[in-house]
Amino acid sequence: MSRLQLAIDVANLEEAIQFYSRMFSSEPSKVRPGYANFTIEEPPLKLVLVEDIENGGSINHLGVEVDDVRMVHEADARMTDEGLTTTGIDETMCCYADKTETWIDGPDDIRWEWYVKSGDNEQFEKIVVSSEANCCEN
């Protein structure tokens, strides 16, 4: 199963957690300083809140969370075949998770992430562990 991801910047994280918990009748699955995420079953949604006082109420990025790494590779290949430019596939530590991901920039500077989570960690800022996009560069 796949689910859409909506990552939004919020001015007040605690207020946003309370609101979205009530709206979706769901508690966050992870809360860290300046960050929370919900894994909502109905509708299938990964809701990510990133505290950003200056940009509250704006889209941080959109994404598609998939079940396995094969689906990330298939999505990257499909988008590339369609003539779209992706970042390539990276193994990363970001947003308190270990992930395999690819990114693409859409119209109006809307960033999309296609990813599968493989574990948890305490790293918020993105660290690329390995990259297929750069594997063969000299």
Textual characterization of the structure:
With 138 residues, the protein is α+β, with helices and mostly antiparallel strands. The protein has a single domain, classed as 2,3-Dihydroxybiphenyl 1,2-Dioxygenase, domain 1 (Roll), CATH 3.10.180.10. 18% of the residues lie in helices and 44% in strands. A 9-stranded mixed beta sheet has the order 2-3-4-1-5-8-7-6-9. The longest helix has 13 residues. The termini are far apart. The C terminus is likely disordered.
Spans of at least 5 consecutive residues whose pLDDT stays below 50 are 134-138
Average pLDDT level: 91
Question: In order across it, which strands form the biggest sheet?
Answer: 2-3-4-1-5-8-7-6-9
Task: Give the C-alpha Rg.
Answer: 15 Å
Q: What is the helical fraction, as a range of percent?
A: 10-25%
Provide a short characterization of the protein structure.
The chain is of the alpha+beta class. It has helices spanning 13-24, 69-81; strands spanning 3-10, 30-32, 35-40, 45-51, 58-65, 90-94, 97-105, 111-120, 127-131.
